[in-house]
Input
Amino acid sequence: MGEELNGRQDLDAFAPTADRAVRYVREDATQPGVVQITLDRPPANVLSVEMLQELVAAVDSLEYRRDVKLVVVRAAGKYFSAGFELNDHLGDRAYMMLESFRRVFEGLARVDKPTLAVVAGPAFGAGCLLAAGCDMTFAAQSAKFAHPEIRGGVFNTVAAALLPRLVGRKRAFEMLLLGTTMGAADAERVGLITRAVPDERLEAEAGAVVQRFQESSAPVMQLARRAIVGGANLPFDEAVSHAEDVYLNQLAATEDLEEGLRAVAEKRKPAWKDR
Output
């Protein structure tokens, strides 16, 4: 899966090709430390088993990228994603579909890189969860979110586990058992997404977040995320202990912690070393 480059997999392995539905773009000089993963299977970015496996490979290749400050997940075309391929719900492909989708989320949790989903169009089923499952989700005001799978006699297994944690049990039951569709404003209100913005402002708002991350320290962002994610499902005292462990035994060993505090004391911008 690409050549080894400085101890990591080469992101150029994910350059666009005619038969690839996931574009994984190396960060350029204008966006240092920012990597973009783009769903590119028009018109609806339906998530086939093969496309999910491409997503798994793209996410897994981030694991040893210590310079990555933010991963942006977006989609080309009208839809963010209309969800799983219908035929993949049947036979042996059902197992492959569920396993691959679970591995996407396991990978996102493991790689310690903050993620931002930028949703310009409808996000249904697995597409809804892929967008909502990122650390931050910005959506156009016209975007729609739904889990309509129940109408076809199926349900999303990762959604059954993750949605109650994101929006609470009552709302999760409504979304999964009734297939309720909600607009971006309601999705923000219930905590499914971070922010709903006017369609024409989506890229500018997302760009402002990207800029903030570009100006940050990669290890500080990664370790802060590790503290949050690692303690999210623990009792309060254990979550605090986990965060303290990350702070004292990992963050404290970075050069950027010292530089950040020194910059505050000297009233200047920090010169991050990303180590």
